[in-house]
Amino acid sequence: MPMRRRTFLKGAATTVAAGTGLFPHVWVKNTGLAYAQGGEIKVGVLFSLTGTTAIIEESLHKATIMAIEEINAAGGINGMRIVPVEEDPASDPATFAEKARKLVLSDRCVSVFGSYTSASRKAVLPVFERQNNLYFYPTLYEGRECSKNVIYTGAVPNQQQDDFVPWLVEKFGKRWYLIGSNYIYPKEENNYCKKLLAELGAEVVAEEYVPLGHSEFSSVINKFRSEKPNVIFSTVVGDSVVALHRQYRAAGLDPETMPMASLTTSENEVAAMGGDAAAGHFTSAPYFMVWDSPENQRFVEAYRSRWGGDKVTHFVSEPSYFQVYLFKQAVQKLAASDITPPTIREAIKGEEMVAPQGRVRIEPENLHTWLWPKIGQCGSDGQFTILKQSETWQEPDPYKAYPNQRCTADGLKEV
Ligand code: ACM
């Protein structure tokens, strides 16, 4: 026995030395503490309540908090209460990283739910990888990431574009204008779009990026007029979505002949711009608020009753909500003393549930989620009509644009 204890301590000392990094005091202080303590388990909630993406992140925060409240009201996880530690990273990637370090190292959260933009996810990633903690990310994103420290519950490009792009080409035509915000997500998402368009013999007449928070689209709209594309493919995010749609409408352009097709315009941005500005345009997503299922009816009613009868749900708030339940399912498989980020990661692999959009599942190979693609057209009431839906859930393939690479449970592989 004493021998075993010494061996353990020696191992622990090595771990401390290797893991100290910039925060030796915090790491040493926390060594040996269980994550589940006093009938409570702490999680971080890291969504912007201020700044340019607060327009959407505020609703992700609300959906996350509602799921935590529901789980606690129903008895918690094996009797333990989830305690959310809430931080506002103000739509700023550097602040995201700073707050993530606080949540993981000082607050000792066992997982963190957070982020809308890929810029903010990329900013926090080193924190979660270095500390071997877990980040639950609910947003559609560009793929090309294979981290064992992120659970990805939003759509990747194949889940939003494989049905959408051919459908739009057939319906509207082959001359496409790509407009996005200027950061990694729109550029990578457009790489996949261009690949699909090339396969369909379609043409990109322009590819343009505007700064995050951009609100003056008159020169862009003049180019829409002169280029006369058949489809405007938009990966603009945040407040800019509202400005782009309003200025498109004010310019008198016609969605029947030059629609915007978006991967980022949800009921939430539509509520901010007014339904008239969005009417006639298209979005591809695994979830729309109008989706007819008992689980969705319950979700929408609970959300409105908690946050206000005028509030909308959408394709990023829905995964923000269901990913907390997947976390719960994973944690409840563990004894309290075994609850750590790595044990949660193992326990969540292959976990399934019936979410508001339909049955979803965490793919054990790459920690992304099987989802149900749909195509919606917005009406002037601010709600989408679902025009097409996938007959089955669709596998997440985060490297589909890079066929010689594959994300596996053992990391990124060349194939
Ligand atoms: C995004 O930046 N993943 C929308």
Describe the structure.
It is a single chain. This protein is an alpha/beta fold. It has two domains: 21-155 and 292-371, Response regulator (Rossmann fold), CATH 3.40.50.2300; 157-285, Response regulator (Rossmann fold). Helix content is 42%, strand content 20%. The protein is built from 15 helices and 18 strands. It has helices spanning 2-19, 24-30, 54-73, 93-106, 118-131, 157-161, 164-172, 184-199, 218-227, 239-250, 267-273, 275-278, 294-307, 317-331, 341-348, and strands at residues 36-37, 40-46, 81-87, 112-114, 135-137, 150-152, 175-181, 203-210, 231-235, 260-262, 282-285, 352-355, 358-362, 369-370, 374-378, 384-389, 405-408, 411-414. The protein has a seven-stranded mixed β-sheet with strand order 8-7-9-10-11-15-16. Strands 1, 2, 3, 4, 5 and 6 form a six-stranded mixed β-sheet that branches. The longest helix has 20 residues, at 54-73. The protein starts with a helix and ends with a strand. The model is unreliable at 1-29 (pLDDT under 50). Acetamide is lined by residues 117-118, 139-141, 185, 237, 264. Acetamide (ACM) binds at residues 117-118, 139-141, 185, 237, 264.
